[in-house]
Write a structure and sequence with these properties.
Elements: H1 2-23, H2 30-45, H3 49-78, H4 81-88, H5 91-100, H6 106-126, H7 136-154, H8 160-168
Length: 169
């Protein structure tokens, strides 16, 4: 069951990567579908539901703080928030960030986001003619794909290690 869910996730992530790098847009239904996939996987393969929910909530708070910072930047920069916020972030970026909240523990989530942000900025600065806008969803999906492949190959749950350490102490 876990293998089938991971393979389905990999196919959806590959579709997301191709769409974002090629068209700078993704199908809106991919993010809710991936979120449902992650929630089902988390509930099926994690013993402690409270630990899982707490991790999801921490990740959601982290994403909300990030988006609030971008909104505040847009407000201070141009004084017209909605229009400027959408200039810096698209709906796909917001949906993908909130979908990513259900992937893993908070420490791994923050590390994944920071790594993907740096890779996206390096790509945008290295190839300014190719990337007029930053393909954030594509870069996040590449990182997500790496973690999902890790899960598939090693048959390891991204929530299990921290849960094991908490139960051991």
């Amino acid at each position: 069951m876990a293998t089938a869910l991971n393979i389905l996730g990999i196919v959806l992530l590959l579709l997301t990567i191709v769409q974002d790098f090629r068209y700078r847009a993704i199908y809106w239904w991919l993010c809710p579908l991936l979120a449902v996939l992650l929630v089902v996987k988390g509930l099926l393969f994690t013993d402690d539901g409270n630990f899982l929910l707490m991790g999801w909530l921490v990740n959601i708070v982290v994403v909300t703080i990030q988006l609030a910072a971008v909104w505040l930047y847009a407000l201070l920069r141009k004084k017209r928030t909605r229009r400027n916020f959408l200039r810096y972030f698209g709906l796909g970026d917001v949906l993908c960030l909130y979908t990513l909240c259900f992937l893993c523990q908070p420490y791994l989530f923050v590390a994944l986001c920071c790594t993907c942000y740096v890779i996206a900025l390096i790509a945008a600065l290295t190839f300014p003619k190719k990337f007029s806008t930053i393909p954030l969803v594509g870069c996040l999906s590449v990182g997500w794909l790496v973690l999902t492949t890790y899960e598939l190959v090693l048959n390891e749950n991204l929530w299990s290690y921290v849960q094991f350490m908490l139960n051991a102490s």
